[in-house]
Amino acid sequence: YNTQTAIALLRQHADYGHWYDIHKLQPKDISNTQTIAAMNPSAGSFYVNPRYQRHFWTCAVPFPEANSLFLIYSTFLNGHFKKFKPNVLEQCAHIIKAALQLHGEIIKKFRKTAINFHYEFNIRHLSQIFQGLLLAQPQQFQDPEKLVRLWIHESERIYGDRLVLPENLVDYKGIIADAVKKGFSKFNMSRFFQANNPESLIFCNFTQGLAGERNYDQMPGDKLSFYIVEALKEYNENYANMDLVLFEDALKHVCRITRIISSPSGHALLVGVGGSGKQSLTRLAAFICGYTTFSITISQSYNKNDLKTDLQNLYQKTGVKDEGILFLMTDSQITKEEFLVYINDLLSSGEIAELYTNDEKDAIVNQIRGKVKAEGIPDTKENCWNWFINKVKTNLHMALCFSPVGESFRRRARQFPALVNCTVIDWFQPWPQDALLSVSDNFIKNIEALGEPEVVNAVVKFMPFSFQICLLYTSDAADDLLCVDLGGRRIIKKKKQI
Known about the structure:
Layout: H1 6-16, E1 18-21, E2 26-29, H2 50-53, H3 66-81, H4 86-89, H5 91-109, H6 123-133, H7 144-158, H8 166-183, E3 203-204, E4 217-218, H9 224-238, H10 248-261, E5 268-271, H11 278-289, E6 292-294, H12 304-320, E7 325-330, H13 339-348, H14 358-374, H15 381-395, E8 396-402, H16 408-415, H17 418-421, E9 424-427, H18 433-444, H19 453-473, H20 475-487, H21 489-497
Parallel strand pairs: 5-8, 5-9, 6-7, 7-8
Antiparallel strand pairs: 1-2, 3-4
Helix pairs in contact: 3-5, 5-8, 6-7, 10-11, 12-15, 14-15, 18-19, 19-20
């Protein structure tokens, strides 16, 4: 009668071995069924009804010890890097030790709070770092120092990109600089951690351009802007024009997003105030990866059945037709919280409950049966369905663009833990002074009504200053002004028209 939680139904089965059919008003016996449950005691609501918990034998699983983790990750790394040069392979043990030490320091320094609810670092984040290391190929990694640089880069993507405050980033830089100094003293890495003008360290899979071979490698500093600007030009030739100013921070965010969505089950959670460029940079990153960007069209009548239909279409394209698609969703498009039930399933396992009826599943299985046979897999219904879901997980990626302002982000992350646990977070920090200056210069320098070049130059320099002043007084005003500075080119264009 929708008056009890689902766990109460499970408790009834554990107590009596049956459920009641509310239509026929008679019991349904459930036999030969056992229950295995798992929970995370540090996330969500970890109160379990004692009348249900008494049926279980409870076993606590602590964080693995350092020796166990070293054995696990050394098995992966040694297996992958055995085809590399011996001096590269010997760095694996040092990297694992440094990674474990860094992880421990991060846990001690950055504690989970009510505001920084996502400051929770576990074995999942360690695994994501080593997953990035496994992208290395012998042709690109001939030098052991380069492998260490890759570890530094992957660690910053996992730990540094989810930090909220610039002060936290400074603390993180100090922690990893100490770890590198202790573990890799024979390599000079200080240029990446110096306070003034540190050297950029960027790895991505388009180091030879969009048309070149896709290998995960270090991007030369003088090539990054050229390749992404060329990609933007090509995007504007094929899709609606995006008038973007690609300053250094924007370029880095494009690389971060491409890194996330290039891997199977790679989903991005982009957090930043409105107008910070999350959607535009995501569309550009998807284009660089060769994906088609899809976004739902919200209307007053759009409901969960419409979302279900859209998801079925996405699954058809990615699972059956083998197309790469980026599903872009913003917090403003979540008009009903029940949308997140489907999204949570998509992020966590790729298989959405109740998305298909049994007849629809049979139709999909028949569509892909030939492809499954061609790969030498027995074409049973279970094998075909697993093949389909794996294709979806490989080809369908999500980019969630959320604002940290207000309580909705924290509430949704608490109710639907996959939003944080099954995504890689890229927290958009406030744009630096030079970024604001370049945006201001790009959109103001051609306004003839301002007159003399000296006046234009003064207005260009005043825009970042005015933004910083508002930022000091009120965060709300800063959010509005950020929209004006970075997304307000439409207003400027209207003034030009007038």
